[in-house]
Design goal:
The structure holds two protein chains of two kinds. By secondary structure, chain A is an alpha/beta fold. In chain A, about 55% of the residues lie in helices and about 10% in strands. The longest helix of chain A is centred in the last third of the chain and has 67 residues. Chain A is elongated and about 115 Å long. The two termini of chain A are about 20 Å apart. Chain B is mostly helical. Chain B is flat and about 65 Å long. Classes of the chains: A alpha/beta, B mainly alpha. At the A-B interface, helix 8 and helix 13 of A face helix 6, helix 7 and helix 9 of B.
């Protein structure tokens, strides 16, 4: 059984091409149902986010499955037409098989492959994709195990590295800095100067922090009112700045025009009025809205766009450094999953060997008993004796075979065992029993319904 | 040194090292464990005081090493109480090692240089003086420590070098609240310590003023703190200046109360 992954992401394809293949849920669902009907395709999970479209499948026929997946992308997801400006499909896509595919899924879940390394959304999106495939009935035991392992790996990466600890967006960096100055943001008042997109993003971030009061001051009061209404803030004109500054703990400014909206004297007056209680000023306007001399005031902490972006850049570098630590965790988990997959191969072999031994035992016992004059009780005793001998002979090799398959060379051991005991010889004793075995070993086991934080439990359920 | 004291000292030191590692790595989980460690140390430290009377040669809390140990205990307790409401875990990195030294001091044979006649006095007033002053010093020690952290954090914020693997210190607001809370309690305790000391001196010499270097320097130290409190609560002094004053004030007070005694 092989695992194949075909996909495209922000690393391989521009957004014009990605959006072409990002089918709506209902379309994708119907397409997946059709894909599942093809005999070369086993289990399927489709991951579709704004930064990636990937389909993961299991297959017994990798070559056919590969062609089928490309066809699925072009005809089903892409609607049979290439994306505008798209060259060869292979130039914008990637195909991974087996361990490479497993590693890729683990990296995606751990947000190492994300545009913003360590971002938390991708894990939720993957869980949604996994749930959808379970509901659709296209996810079986192997992909179920793969995704549960991926979620558990992402959890380990998050807990054991600092990949997601430091913020990398301007708004989040500003909030993190505010936390270095203020113990509790819920009783703080924020003043936004301007009413553009950056102010909107900052309002969103600050609203999530549950600030006591948000105020928007703008040259055009109507624009301030529009924005304020959406965030439960109050709207003001720039003429109110002096009054607002006195009780503002956080001031964020991003407003057009030349000259400083706030100068040092104005901020000093406000500080004096608030008994020198610290004020955090963020100036993301270009040209700058706040006089840099404000930072010389003891209780004023002024950060301009370069300061904030410098911190965001350092944090991103730190996240990338942590990503290399995450790779070690991913490798460990990848090996564990590989062990499990090899052990799947051992189960039919073990059953096979038992069946072969049992067939030999019964054949020999039947022939011997017919030549001996034994009472029923004696025959039963001989029967029990032969069963006991066979079990004792097989016990140790079978136990070792099971254990070895969990390790690196497991697959080779399984193959050696099959060759050693002649399990693939069709004329060997018990061959007729062999043919009945093995087919049921990989029957899909429906996974439990997955909650956000129960991946480990589901993972260990089998 | 009793088994309890040894255990408390060891735990304080271990907690301090853990907290330092937590800051350096940075690993917030280690800092949290360190806070629990300091709490355990304080519990055992308290047990050490409670069982002093069971020793063959019962020491007095008025002995300088025990007074220092008591001061550290009060400082640790007050910090733990403040941690209940404020994110101050990283202060453990400083409090742990300092508390260790304070508990460990008795084993180094440090003896008080206090007047032998005064030391010979056993009773309520000497104990009230030493315990109140030590408690006040312990609280003001936390004021000074919070001041040090405030100045470090203020500098980091002004330098704007907080990206990447930055060490997470308590917020400026939390440190300032520590400053206010410990000053509000510590200064009155110190004042009561001075008053009881004066009453004690009066009981031995008939005068409320001994004129000893210890008395002179302590009174000056008290004056410094009086000025600081006035500037903070009535003069509109900013948090950064208050932090600086707290550091300077405590250094001076430590010298006035303990340093002068030790160099005599």
């Amino acid at each position: 059984m092989k695992i194949l992954l075909l996909g495209m992401s922000h690393r391989s394809a521009p957004v014009e091409i990605r959006e072409h293949y990002a089918a709506e849920d209902s379309v994708a669902e119907a397409a997946l149902r059709r894909l599942a009907e093809h005999p070369e395709i086993g289990e399927i999970v489709l991951i579709s986010t704004c930064n990636r479209v990937e389909v993961v499948v299991t297959t017994q026929s990798p070559e056919e499955a590969r062609s089928r997946l490309k066809h699925f992308f072009r005809e089903e997801l892409g609607g049979g037409t290439p994306a505008p400006g798209e060259g060869a499909f292979d130039d914008h896509s990637y195909l991974h098989a087996d361990q490479e595919a497993v590693g890729h899924v683990f990296r995606v879940a751990s947000a190492i492959d994300s545009m913003v390394v360590g971002e938390p959304q991708i894990l939720g999106q993957m869980k949604d994709a996994y749930r959808a495939s379970i509901e659709l009935g296209t996810c079986g035991p192997i992909l179920s195990r793969l995704f549960q392992k991926a979620f558990a790996t992402a959890k380990r990466v998050k807990n054991e590295t600092r990949i997601a600890q430091r913020p990398v967006s301007v708004a989040r960096v500003a909030v993190e800095l505010a936390r270095q100055i203020f113990e509790d943001l819920s009783d703080k008042k924020a003043l936004m100067i301007g009413a553009g997109e950056m102010i909107e993003a900052a309002l969103f971030a600050l609203q999530r922090e549950g600030l006591d009061s948000l105020r928007v001051a703008n040259r055009t009061r109507t624009r301030a009112e529009e924005l304020a209404a959406r965030f439960g803030a109050t709207a003001h004109g720039l003429e109110d700045l002096d009054a607002l500054l006195k009780d503002s703990d956080i001031v964020l400014s991003c407003i057009g025009g030349q000259g400083h909206v706030l100068d040092a004297a104005r901020v000093a007056r406000a500080l004096s009025a608030r008994r020198n209680h610290p004020v955090f000023l963020i100036d993301i306007g270009v040209p700058r809205n706040i006089d840099p001399a404000v930072d010389d005031l003891d209780s004023a902490y002024l950060y301009d766009i370069d300061d904030i972006q410098g911190i965001a850049f350092s944090n991103e570098k730190e996240r990338r450094r942590e990503a290399s630590l995450a790779e070690t965790i991913i490798l460990e988990e990848q090996e564990r999953l590989a062990g499990w997959m090899v052990s799947l191969r051992a189960v039919p072999t073990i059953r096979h060997l038992r069946a072969r031994a049992e067939a030999v035992r019964q054949a020999e016992l039947g022939s011997s008993l017919s030549k001996m004059d034994l009472s029923d009780a004696q025959a039963k005793r001989v029967e029990a004796l032969t069963r006991s001998i066979v079990n004792k002979i097989l016990h140790r090799p079978l136990a070792r075979l099971g254990a070895q398959t969990e390790q690196d060379q497991g697959l080779a051991v399984v193959e050696e065992a099959r060759a050693l005991f002649g399990l693939d010889d069709s004329d060997a004793p018990g061959a007729e029993v062999d043919s009945e075995l093995g087919a049921s070993e990989l029957e899909p086991v429906p996974p439990k319904t997955l909650k956000d934080d129960d991946v480990d439990e589901v993972g260990s359920a089998r | 040194m009793t088994g309890f004291q040894q255990a408390a000292a060891a735990i304080y030191l271990a907690a301090g090292i853990l907290a330092l590692l937590g800051l350096a790595l940075p690993a917030p989980r280690l800092t949290r464990i360190a806070v629990w460690g300091v709490g355990l140390g304080a519990l055992i430290h308290g047990a050490a005081f409670a069982t002093l009377h069971e020793l063959d040669s019962v020491p007095q809390l008025t002995d300088l090493p025990y007074a220092i140990s008591f001061m550290a205990w009060i400082a640790v307790l007050s910090l733990l109480v403040l941690m209940w409401r404020l994110r101050l875990g990283s202060l453990t990195a400083a409090v742990g090692p300092l508390a260790f030294l304070a508990v460990f001091l008795p084993t180094l044979g440090v003896q008080s240089g206090t007047d032998a006649d005064l030391l010979s006095m056993r009773g309520t007033m000497p104990h009230a003086h030493v315990l109140l002053s030590s408690a006040g010093l312990g609280m003001l020690g936390i004021t000074g420590l919070a001041g040090v952290f405030y100045l470090i954090e203020h500098r980091r914020l002004k330098k704007k070098r907080l990206g990447g693997r930055w060490v997470s210190l308590p917020s400026l607001e939390a440190l300032d609240r520590v400053n206010v809370a410990t000053l509000v309690i510590g200064f009155p305790l110190l004042t009561l310590g001075l008053i009881t000391g004066s009453v004690w001196v009066h009981a031995t010499s008939g005068s409320y003023w001994s004129g000893s270097p210890h008395a002179v320097w302590t009174l000056v130290g008290w004056g410094v703190y009086g000025g600081m409190s006035a500037a903070r609560f009535f003069g509109g002094q900013g948090a950064r200046q208050a932090a600086g004053s707290a550091v300077g004030g405590f250094m001076f007070l430590l010298f006035a109360v303990i340093g002068v005694e030790m160099i005599r």
